[in-house]
Specification:
The protein is α/β, with parallel strands linked by helices and 250 residues long. The chain has seven helices and ten strands. Helix 3 runs antiparallel to helix 4 and helix 6 packs across helix 7. The protein is 34% helix and 24% strand. The structure holds adenosine-5'-diphosphate and magnesium ion.
Length: 250
């Protein structure tokens, strides 16, 4: 379970102070997915960096399974926007990077490694380098690496935004199928409403700067089969978009 209470974060530079997040309260049950959507500059990446333990000088409390964020002892998977693959390592080595860094024994991961490579459709690509892969394939490698570690928390910062629409839908499906098998608590940032409604069990709408939660939606359509074809899906996206427009234009 992820618990955020009274979280505020102010950046201090030599010239100015800038409050990027203000009094965020949020709870996420273990194994849930949460999509965070908000306008550019509202503090989405800042929030992920706090959850990842990269930013530590915030106010309030942030806990993962009852403990403050401690990247040394907890396993926090982070997929940045550019996938974070090392260009000089091949697919197989990139996937294995996570447990090398965490000093885990490869033998304990062998079975999961094989099944994730299959599940993510990476069979046959193991010896290719990131530069020899499409964006969608690179994203699959990043997902394999993240899920292999069985993270306490998986964070994804606009993970699918660079992909074309068809590839994005395909990889969203791939993400959900892996997530169902591994049931990892996931927080993802997106600026695309369809993505939030498709992938978020919870949808958190952030207001324009300074980042405040303007609404939390328990998404009734999450996990419904072929939901993207449903009228309700379309309807919910329209409703949320409307709500956001009103909110962001204030
Ligand atoms: P988002 O991901 O929602 O686009 P960010 O979390 O990246 O927003 O940034 C939120 C705000 O904080 C922005 O206005 C940005 O300019 C500011 N900001 C981000 N990083 C820094 C930093 N290291 N120093 C000062 N201000 C920052
Ligand atoms: Mg960002």
């Amino acid at each position: 379970m992820i618990q955020i209470k009274g979280l505020s974060m102010t950046y201090e530079t030599s010239e100015a102070r800038y409050t990027a997040l203000k009094d965020i309260n949020l709870e996420l049950a273990a194994g849930e997915t949460c999509a965070i959507i908000g306008p550019s500059g509202c503090g989405k990446s800042t929030l992920l960096k706090i959850l990842a333990g990269i930013i530590t000088d915030f106010e309030g409390t942030v806990e993962i399974n009852g403990q403050p964020v401690m990247p040394k002892t907890q396993i926090i998977g982070f997929i940045p926007q550019n996938y974070g693959l090392l260009p000089w390592k091949n697919v197989y080595e990139n996937i294995c990077l996570g447990f090398k860094i965490k000093h885990k024994k490869q033998a304990d991961y062998e079975a999961d490694l094989t099944s994730l490579i299959q599940l993510l459709g990476l069979g046959g690509l193991e010896y290719r380098y990131p530069g020899e892969l499409s964006g969608g394939q690179q994203q699959r490698v990043a997902l394999a690496r993240a899920f292999l570690l069985k993270p306490d928390l998986l964070l994804m910062d606009e993970p699918f935004s660079a992909l074309d629409a068809m590839t994005r839908e395909e990889i969203q499906n791939v993400f959900l199928s892996v997530w169902r098998k591994h049931s990892v608590s996931t927080v993802l940032v997106t600026h695309q409403m369809e993505e939030a409604v498709y992938l978020g069990r919870k949808i958190v709408i952030l207001a324009a700067a300074p980042g405040k939660v303007s609404k939390i939606v328990d998404n009734p359509l999450f996990g419904v089969d072929d939901v993207r074809e449903h009228k309700d899906f379309f309807q919910l996206c329209v409703e949320l978009r409307k709500m956001i427009k009103e909110d962001w234009s204030k």
